Amino acid sequence: MHEFQLIKNYFQKLSIKSPSALNLSDDVFFDKKNKLVVSVDTYIEGNHFLDFKKPNLVIKKIIRSSISDIICKGVKPKYYFISASGNKKTFSKLNLSKISKSLNEEQKKYKIFLSGGDTIFSNKLSFTIISIGFTDKIIYRNKAKNNDDIYITGNLGDSYMGLLFLKKKIKLNKLLGKYFTNQYYMPDLQIGLIGQIKKFANTSIDVSDGLLADLEKMINSQKISYKIFLNKIPISNNLKKVLVKNKLSKINYISNGDDYQILFTASKDKRRIIERISSKYRIKITQIGSIESFAKKSSIINSKNTPIGLKNKGYLHKF
After folding, report:
1. How far are the Cα atoms of 9, 234, 271, 294 from residue 145, in angstroms, in the given order?
2. What's the pTM value of the predicted model, to 2 decimals?
3. pLDDT digit string, tens, across residues 253-304
4. Which residues touch 5 (CB under 8 Å, ≥6 apart)?
5. CATH entry, 149-308, from 3.40.50.10680, 3.40.50.620, 3.90.650.10, 3.30.470.30
6. Could you say which of 3.40.47.10, 3.30.750.24, 3.40.50.720, 3.30.1330.10 is the CATH number of the domain covering 3-134?
7. Cα–Cα–Cα angle for 106, 156, 148, nearest 5°?
């Protein structure tokens, strides 16, 4: 059963009397009256992160991916809570010291504060993070409009290449290996866009499950489709080097998740302001396609202007 089906069939009706739950169709809880925004995420070893050999980096990945849900809404995260399950090996004194140091670094970087949590004993390592921010306005997930431009911040694919390197499925030199490993564990969140994105975005989501998987979540039940141009999807120069050297296809590296960039749509009359803000704040923002009529089939267009297929659209939550 797909995640959307599970929510619709079993839990959506339970939130009817809680309008702030946004019908369980967004990534956050938003209480406009009290200016409260909340997101909740759970991370399990072997599923959401590879292993716990580098606890100092794993905890950074977890924190950044969690606050990313709030950042893409144009909201500054302020407080976070951690619940963790583990055993004496995973939560040794050395590991706990590394985790504490990394959390302190993340708090200074993003100006967030640990505010509570819980710990339980288990041989299965997992973390649940609750992130909280405050605002009277957010960018909702399913508000794309026909003819909107589609944009993405930053680059895509680096995190996936880092995962492949860590799994020893690809060989890289020392410098590239370090670069992609860092991109996997420490995604570059667009914190500088928080105060600006509400000026132009109609809808937004962070790219966690993959470009196309999250794009489809963003339009969800709306009667619209999308057209994406493969050659416009931004990737780093380092990823370009690896793809060329190993004769790999770009299409297989742009929708595998864990990028935590902001995917959003905006009306065409917002192009100039987006360009100005991108330049002023030195944030890479790339127009990669457009929202189309529902009568048209969603598609990815190659350099020859023909639609291409993609077997893997990203991570799917199935039960």
Report:
1. 27, 23, 15, 11
2. 0.94
3. 999 989 999 999 999 999 999 999 999 999 999 999 999 988 788 899 998 8
4. none
5. 3.90.650.10
6. 3.30.1330.10
7. 105
